[in-house]
Amino acid sequence: MNNSQHPIARKTGLVVQEVPDEVLVYDLESNKAHCLNQSAAMIWKSCDGNNSVSEIAKLVENQAGGKVTEDFVWLAIDQLSENNLLEKQIPSNFEGTSRREVIKKIGLASMVAIPVIASLVAPQSALAASSCVCNGPGACNLNGPNGQCPGRTCNGAGLCVAP
Amino acid sequence: MRVKLEASNPELLRDAKQTARRALLDRFRILESTEAEHTFGFTSDESGKIFLFQDGERTSYDTSQTRFFKFFNSMLRIVVAEHAVGTVFIHAGVVGRRGKAIIIPANSFQGKTTLVAEMVKCGAEYYSDEYAVIDENGMVHPFPRDLSVRDENFGEKEVPVTELGGKTGIKPIPIGAVLLTEYVENGAWKPRQLTVGQGIMEIIPHTIPRNFNTEFSLKVLNTAVSDAIILKSPRGDAREFAIKFLSFFDNFINLA
After folding, report:
1. Contact (CB<8Å) A126/B78
2. Do A15 and B214 count as a contact with CB atoms less than 8 A apart?
3. Interface of A with B (CB under 8 A)
């Protein structure tokens, strides 16, 4: 365990939107969207390169009004690092332990909501969210269940039609 | 936004203009300017093939004029949806009820139009079966093209809302509910209420300008759904669900 780490939140290539009790972060480089709950957001905002993990724990404890351990902070840092939301990747502090076990351990001891980051990869093209169209013969796969336009084939002109 | 249409012959240009008129529900002006952010070009060859060019690149061709212009219709709507200034287009069905919008973001083939049609038959106002058009204040504007109803063979027919006995919403309205649902055979409606952040995460994949204008899109989504109830669950039969949900929604609005 290295609690002398001073993590830095990534700033570039991100669009940040505060919503009630959460923070949305859209990564323009990977087209990934992340939703940070209040605890994860507080920790992320405290990662200014000056605060150590133990200092972040104290800051969050003051803001959240409940006991916050360094493991609690590490749980967030692990997820932030994994999702490329820190300037530099930081190795996991829980090697050999599953996140589920860590959450169980921290969750039982904490009165503050455990930090959670939900992520998704947004489709790159607007076409993927539109009508049943295709971009080449046999490529009728831009939409529909399981990536197919059911019962249709591409007519070679961009339209999926009944065979 | 400005879109230029150019064609190698007057007939193609006429057909392209007519298609644009239908695609954009007649909501455009013809400009004298030759400057445009996007250009669609049309040419044909001696065999009768028609070619579509988008910003100088050939994107499609067809020998069937009907199919060709149907495709152009889709492409034009996508380009407008992605680049429209001051609005965010979400791929969603929309109805109005008691002055609030119910939006149903979903991909194609998930029963969006069917559900919208059933809600309209139950008295909801029709706004769109394709796009929720949201302005910077979070208000949803009508985009009431004819409903694109599919049959069991995946054929499509366009049905005017009046044929369903419904009427079209006229005013921009705020969002009252976001329904994240899809048809599942014998599916039971057991909704989970999502937070604003979770809801926006679900809407992002259906938000057309998410890559082109991310910051504005997220800001508008936040404004638009922050006072809405956001529910997620599979559903069963559209008719039964529409009756049940609208009854719930009426009570919800009364209590709010």
Report:
1. yes
2. yes
3. 15, 17-24, 26, 28, 31, 33, 35, 37, 118, 120, 122-124, 126-127, 129-133, 135, 143-145, 149-152, 155-159, 161-162
Find chain A residues with C-beta within 8 A of B112's C-beta: none
Q: In what order do the strands lie in the sheet with B3-7?
A: B3-7, B38-44, B50-54, B57-62
CA–CA separation, B254 vs B248, rounded Å?
Answer: 10
Q: Do residue A19 and residue B62 have CB atoms under 8 angstroms apart?
A: no
d(CA B89, CA B158): 21
Cα-atom radius of gyration of chain B, to the nearest Å? Answer: 19
As a whole number of angstroms, the distance between CA A46 and CA A6 comes to 10
| B91 touching A (Cβ < 8 Å) | yes
Residues in chain A with CB shorter than 8 Å from the CB of B211 are 31, 122, 124, 126
Q: How far is CA A146 from CA A154, B10, B188, in A?
A: 16, 42, 22
Q: Per-residue confidence of chain B (256 residues) as pLDDT tens digits? A: 999 999 999 999 999 999 999 999 988 888 887 789 999 999 999 988 899 898 988 877 888 888 888 888 888 998 999 999 999 999 999 999 999 999 999 987 788 999 999 999 999 999 999 999 999 999 999 999 999 887 766 667 889 999 999 999 999 999 999 999 999 988 899 999 999 999 999 999 999 999 889 999 999 999 999 999 999 999 999 999 999 999 999 999 888 7
Helical packing angle, A70-82 and A53-64, nearest 10°? 110
Amino acid at site B36: A
As a whole number of angstroms, the distance between CA B231 and CA A64 comes to: 28
The answer to whether A126 contacts B208, with C-beta atoms less than 8 Å apart, is yes
Token digits for B84? Answer: 């429209």
A35–B198 C-beta distance less than 8 A: yes
- Mutation target to probe the A interface, by most A beta carbons within 10 A, among B112, B211, B212, B223 is B211
pTM score: 0.86
Say what angle helices B214-225 and B196-203 make with each other, to 10 degrees: 130
The ipTM estimated for the assembled molecules is: 0.86
Determine the Cα–Cα distance for residues A105 and A63; give it in Å rounded to an integer.
Answer: 22
Determine what percent of chain A falls in helix, strand and coil, rounding each to the nearest 5. 30, 20, 50
Structure tokens at A142: 């831009």
Q: Does B33 touch chain A (CB under 8 A)?
A: no
φ, ψ dihedrals at B13, nearest 5°: -65, -40
